[in-house]
């Protein structure tokens, strides 16, 4: 595959074509399964035949470095085989060093030797797993130990281990042209700063409203929610700037020893709720590195609960409007690294289609979170497959896929004789005469073997603005 690079707020291939990506997260937290989705190659082939061209592939510190300074090449070779197969079927990959509650001791992430929790308690029976970020002394201490670069049993600091590990990974995967980025850590968690910030925010509200229940923050008035958000933002943005950005720059130094594959910067674990403090990455001399991807996550507050009847599209729209503002400030391309996480239900496709409109409006790439066993055959997830411009010779202006009418429209400023490729989910009723193009162009259709969809290829015969309508 042609290697992608960052150019302003776009992804471009080696020929300068703009590339849009539609994808999924594949994150297997099960150590007994080798931290890789079983039969993942067949699943990748299935999704490639449905127009998907990107995956966020979870890898784990516990899998890479099971003992201090000793890397598990057998595990990394299995990951490499997945990356290689993904390239074979036309899928780009960004590697995500995943963690939830910091460590495999709690859910997934760091190995136990790197989990310096000082034997503190990890409570059981929390109503939602992520409450442990503010209620588990063990998780909090383990994260604080990491950011403080406390020494492991071998006398080497945890951050030092982490940097060396990423240097090793980057060197191992540098030759794979379908690697679009390295994500140093999923949703970095700030440790004791989190309960401190929430304590301050809740305390501020309780001073004026003693009846406020911190265990039910959703009951806050709009004014109270705004005040809490302001306090949390102040603290979490400080974490991003003072702790997280030096961490990203440190990982950049390690990764740049092997090449210029982009660094994926997502923001802290509470990035959905507050604005980001992420900045441009730079080398030790302070020079800005151009190969950086902004990869925010975004969910409604009902995520991981059984309250999807309360799902707010308006809230999700606001969440990603904030992410758009951050993108414009940073001047970086976006891959929405996580969104959705929807249960299978009658409402699921409607919620997917709402998010699709946001992705279309901002021309963002994304990886839906996450693949679950059997979802490829579940009609409640069918809207993840959509029509979109895969590659544009020129500059994309706008596009939209109408699920009900099964119609894709796209507008772009075209380069003469440049090949633009659009994916369309169902070519059964689409022939050349049903592809309407506003300018003189050569049109061809490339169906995908064994699938209903395929690619419509448009080669304009002159420079200028062009509009295409398929279906």
TrEMBL record:
Any one of the GO BP annotations: lipid catabolic process
Keyword entries, A-Z: Glycosidase, Hydrolase
A molecular function (GO) term: hydrolase activity, hydrolyzing O-glycosyl compounds
Hydrolase among keywords: yes
Domain Glycoside hydrolase family 5 C-terminal: from-to ranges: 386-444
Domain spans labelled Glycoside hydrolase family: 39-365
Superkingdom of this protein's organism: Bacteria
Keyword tRNA processing: no
Pfam families: Cellulase (PF00150), Glyco_hydro_5_C (PF18564)
Family membership noted in the UniProt record: Belongs to the glycosyl hydrolase 5 (cellulase A) family.
PANTHER family hit by this protein: ENDOGLYCOCERAMIDASE, PTHR31308
Protein name: Cellulase family glycosylhydrolase
Species the sequence originates in: Cohnella thailandensis
């Amino acid at each position: 595959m042609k290697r992608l690079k960052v150019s302003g707020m776009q992804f471009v291939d080696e020929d300068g074509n703009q590339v849009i990506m539609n994808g999924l997260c594949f994150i297997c937290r099960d150590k007994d399964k080798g931290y890789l989705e079983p039969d993942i190659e067949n699943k990748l082939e299935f999704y490639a035949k449905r127009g998907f061209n990107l995956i966020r592939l979870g890898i784990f510190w516990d899998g890479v470095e099971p003992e201090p300074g000793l890397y598990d090449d057998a595990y990394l070779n299995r990951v490499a085989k997945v990356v290689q197969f993904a390239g074979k079927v036309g899928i780009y990959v960004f590697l995500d060093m995943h963690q939830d509650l910091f460590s495999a001791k709690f859910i997934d992430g760091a190995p136990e030797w790197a989990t310096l929790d000082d034997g503190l308690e990890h409570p059981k029976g929390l109503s939602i797993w992520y409450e442990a970020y503010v209620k588990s002394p063990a998780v909090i201490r383990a994260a604080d130990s990491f950011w403080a670069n406390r020494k492991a049993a071998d006398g080497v600091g945890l951050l030092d281990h982490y940097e060396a590990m990423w240097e090793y990974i980057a060197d191992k995967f540098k030759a794979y042209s379908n690697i679009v980025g390295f994500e140093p850590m999923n949703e970095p968690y700030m440790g004791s700063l989190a309960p401190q910030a929430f304590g301050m925010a809740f305390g501020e509200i309780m001073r004026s409203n003693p009846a406020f229940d911190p265990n039910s923050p959703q009951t806050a008035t709009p004014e109270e929610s705004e005040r809490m958000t302001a306090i949390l933002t102040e603290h979490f943005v400080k974490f991003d700037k003072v702790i997280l950005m030096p961490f990203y720059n440190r990982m950049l130094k390690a990764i740049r020893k092997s090449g210029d594959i982009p660094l994926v910067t997502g923001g802290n674990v509470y990035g959905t709720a507050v604005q980001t403090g992420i900045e441009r990455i730079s080398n030790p001399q302070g020079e800005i590195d151009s190969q950086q991807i902004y990869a925010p996550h975004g969910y409604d507050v009902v995520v991981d609960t059984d309250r999807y009847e309360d799902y707010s599209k308006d809230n999700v729209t606001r969440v990603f409007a904030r992410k758009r503002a951050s993108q414009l400030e940073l001047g970086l391309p976006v891959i929405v690294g996580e969104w959705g996480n929807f249960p299978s239900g009658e409402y699921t496709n409607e919620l997917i289609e709402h998010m699709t409109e946001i992705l279309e409006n901002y021309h963002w790439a994304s990886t839906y979170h996450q693949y679950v066993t059997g979802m490829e055959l579940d009609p409640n997830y069918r809207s993840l497959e959509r029509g979109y411009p895969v590659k544009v010779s020129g500059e994309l202006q706008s596009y939209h896929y109408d699920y009900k009418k099964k119609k894709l429209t796209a507008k772009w400023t075209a380069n003469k004789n440049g090949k633009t490729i659009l994916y369309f989910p169902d070519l059964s009723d689409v022939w050349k005469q049903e592809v309407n193009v506003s300018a003189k162009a050569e049109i061809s259709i490339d169906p995908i073997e064994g699938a209903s969809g395929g690619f419509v290829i448009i080669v304009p015969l002159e420079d200028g603005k062009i509009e295409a309508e398929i279906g």
